[in-house]
Amino acid sequence: MSTARRALVVEDSPTMRQLITLALRRIPGLAFVEAENGAQALDHLAAGAFDVILLDLNMPVMNGFAFLEQLPSPHPPVIVITTESGRGDVDRATSLGVVEYVTKPVRGPDLAAAVTRVLGRTPAG
Amino acid sequence: MTSRDDQPLSAHQVEAFLSTLRRSVEVVQDLLEAAARRDERIRSLDAELDNARQRIAFLERETSTLRDKLAIGPEPVSMRYLEELIEEQNSFAHMFVTSDRLAGARSCAEAIQIAVEVLHNLVGAHQFGLWLRWEAAPVLVAPPDPRYRVPDGAHADLVARALATAAPARPTASDAPDAPDAPDAGVPVALPLVLDGRAVGVLLIASLVPQVGSELGRLQDDLARFLVERLPARLCAAAAQGTWAAVEGQLAAATSSGANGDRP
């Protein structure tokens, strides 16, 4: 992964954003941009390209499902980070383009592994 | 007629003879000292040689061991050891984030909000309650979302016991005679917030998210204890620091009273 990659972290909790970005620092060459909700994330996507999106489902202003529904196609692969691990949520998110699930409480190595897996499946943008 | 040898020596001759004899003694002494120095040098070189031989022998043994290891290949690293390292690193990351976020809290409300985020997202608490107490009865201050807040009166005995003893409280056999003893890491658990040796609040974790299970893992337990240890002092600091204007006011007061030295 020598080419610089960009991740968009969409999470309303500053504590979780800090933990997620701490985990992402383990991945060489990965830069990240943070958004507090889906609406901010859509603005970031309109302004620049990303290689992966890490998304919380339960957020104010625009939650994860609303964001996924408004996500223009084609879009970067989406990894969901959530406590919502019910089968219905998984199926709904998968149908909206989610490729991986990481459940809270998040373990940094698990998250870094999921991002590395997803980036390994897609060419650098 | 007397021989020349029988003639007594003159004082000059005696002096010359003694002088020659002294020089000879000095030469012999010099030779003996030089020989002693050489012997010492030889002993020192022998010792160095011996050390060098021992060092060579040690290096040869090390080389041989390393050759053997190379021939066998790298020692397999225990997966359990690796898992422990990863878990440790993960635990430190969670504690760092918790500590860093709390350190940045500029109000009591912000500090409590951070505690809620940590409990919900990092500890994996599903239903919980944070009580703080002053002179009167303890007040439930968090979480604000009723979906995650313990119902009124739930586990009141645990909360009261943790406040009274300033020690963690879990259900005992007498609380539920038919239930098996609660495990050390099980929930519900009431963790006291202790300041100056007195319980000033309690964190009650009533249930955990399904991913964590029915017991706090080591990471979650460590983090919950870390949080309750730091929160009271952070609340005091947040209450004291207030705004930047307050900082300026306090510094100005300290400077004018001479407590803080000269302004730069």
How would you describe what is shown here?
The complex is a heterodimer of chains A (125) and B (264). By secondary structure, chain A is of the alpha/beta class. The mean pLDDT of chain A is 88. In chain A, strand 4, helix 4 and strand 5 form a beta-alpha-beta unit. Chain A is built from five helices and five strands, in the order βαβαβαβαβα. Helix content of chain A is 41%, strand content 22%. Chain A has one domain: Response regulator (Rossmann fold, 3-Layer(aba) Sandwich). Classes of the chains: A alpha/beta (125), B alpha+beta (264). At the A-B interface, helix 1 of A face helix 2 and helix 3 of B.
What percentage of residues of chain B falls in helices of 4 or more residues? 55-70%
Whole-number count of domains of chain B: 2
Largest interface: A-B, 17 and 24 residues
The major beta sheet of chain B can be summarized as:
4 strands, antiparallel
The spatial strand order of the largest sheet of chain A comes to 2-1-3-4-5
Helix count of chain B equals 6
Q: What is the tally of beta strands of chain A?
A: 5
List descriptors.
heterodimer; A: 125 residues; alpha/beta; Rossmann fold; five-stranded parallel β-sheet; 5 helices; 5 strands; 22% strand; globular; B: 264 residues; alpha+beta; Beta-Lactamase; 2 domains; four-stranded antiparallel β-sheet; 6 helices; 4 strands; elongated; disordered C terminus
Which helices and strands appear, and what pairs or packs with what?
The complex is a heterodimer of chains A (125) and B (264).
Chain A: E1 5-10, H1 14-24, E2 30-35, H2 38-47, E3 52-56, H3 64-70, E4 78-82, H4 87-95, E5 98-103, H5 108-121
Parallel strand pairs in A: 1-2, 1-3, 3-4, 4-5
Helix pairs in contact in A: 1-5, 2-3
Chain B: H1 11-72, H2 79-103, H3 108-123, E1 125-132, E2 139-142, H4 156-165, E3 189-195, E4 198-208, H5 218-241, H6 244-256
Helix pairs in contact in B: 2-3, 2-5, 3-5
